[in-house]
Amino acid sequence: MIELHMFPMSHYNEKARWALDYKGIPHTRIPYMPGPHAGKIKKLSGQTQTPVIRFEDGDVLAGSTDIVLELEKRFPQPTLLPADEGAQKQALDLVEKFDGDIAVKERRSLFVHLIDEPDYLCSMFAQGQTPAKRFIYRRMLPLVKGMMRRSMDIHPDALEEGNALTRQAFDYVAAQTRDTGYLVGDQFTIADLTAAAILAPSVQLDYADMMKPKPVAPSIQAYLDQFADHPGAQWVRTMYEQHRAPLRVAA
Ligand SMILES: N[C@@H](CCC(=O)N[C@@H](CS)C(=O)NCC(=O)O)C(=O)O
After folding, report:
1. Are residues 163 and 52 in the same domain?
2. Are 235 and 174 in contact (CB under 8 A)?
3. For a FRET experiment, which of 97, 131, 159, 186 has its CA 20 to 30 Å from that of 192?
4. CATH assignment at residue 37
5. Is 64 a pocket residue for ligand 1 (Cβ < 6 Å)?
C-alpha cells in the first residue's frame, strides 16, 4: 500500500492528503510529530520535510507539489491539471505563489500564538500518537521554544506581516474566483487544491483533517476570527464542501 509520511494539520501535508483522497487512491498515513520526526524522515527521504510518499514500487518522493504531480502521472483520473497548456502554466504558477511566502508566513503567524500554547500545539500535532509519546512531546515543547523561534524566523513583526499576507491571499482568491468559482477556468484544479489547502489553517473548517481541536485556544480563535467573514475564507470552505472527499480512503 502507498504510504504517506506526514504531519497532521500541516497545510503542505494537506495538499498530498487531498490529492490522494480526490483521486480515491488507497493509502496508509503515518503521522509524525514535528521535531522527533527528523531522524526517520531523513532516513526515508534524505531530507527532513514532510510530506513524503512511498509508492508500492519503493519510489520515495518529498515535496507536496512534486507528490501531487507524480500522483497525477500515476493516477491521471480525475485530473487536477487543465488540458490547455496556457491554463496549465497559469495553474502551476499559482501553486508556486501559494506554496511560497504565503504558506510560510501564514504558518509563522499561527506559530507566534502556538508557541505560547503548548497544550494546544500538542493537541494539534501529536494526533495519532500513543499517550506515552504525547506525554513526552508535551514535556519537550517548552524546551524547544527557542529552537522553534529560530527555525521559523519568528521576530516582532512576524505576526503582522503574516496576517497581512494571508489577508491579501484571501482577497486574491475571492476576486479571482468571483466569475467561475475557480482560480483557473471553470473547473477544480491543482491551483484550487493548493490555495484552499494552504489557506485552510486560517479557516475554521468542519473537515476532520484540518479541523482545529476543540476547545480552540483563545489566541487561535482570535486569529481565526479576523478572517471568518472574509469571502476568501468562504471560498476555502466551499472548496472543502465540494471537492474534498467526505470519507478518506486511508487505512
Ligand atoms: N516545499 C515543501 C515544504 C514542506 C514543509 O515546509 N514541511 C514542514 C511542515 S509544514 C516540515 O516538514 N517541517 C519540518 C522540517 O523542515 O524538518 C513542500 O511543499 O512539501
Report:
1. no
2. yes
3. 159
4. 3.40.30.10
5. yes
Interatomic CA distance for residues 241 and 235, integer angstroms: 10
99 lines ligand 1 (CB under 6 A): yes
Amino acid letter, 236: V
Q: State the closest ligand 1 atom to the C-alpha of 47, by its place in the atom list counted from 1.
A: 17
Count of structural domains, the chain: 2
Ligand 1 nearest atom to the CA of residue 104, by list position = 6
- For residues 65-91, one letter each, b for 16 or more C-beta atoms within 10 angstroms of the residue's C-beta and e for the rest, the string is bebbbbbbeebeeeebbbeeeebbebb
Q: What is the CATH number for 168?
A: 1.20.1050
Q: pLDDT tens-digit profile of 165-177? A: 999 999 999 999 9
What's the confidence (pLDDT) of residue 247?
Answer: 55
Q: For residue 60, what are the domain limits? A: 2-74
Per-residue model confidence as pLDDT tens digits over 20-42: 999 999 999 999 999 889 999 99
Looking at residue 156, what is its pLDDT?
Answer: 83
- Say yes or no to pLDDT of 251 above 70: no
Nearest to 23 by CA among 177, 183, 198, 193: 193
Q: Is the residue at 80 inside a domain?
A: no
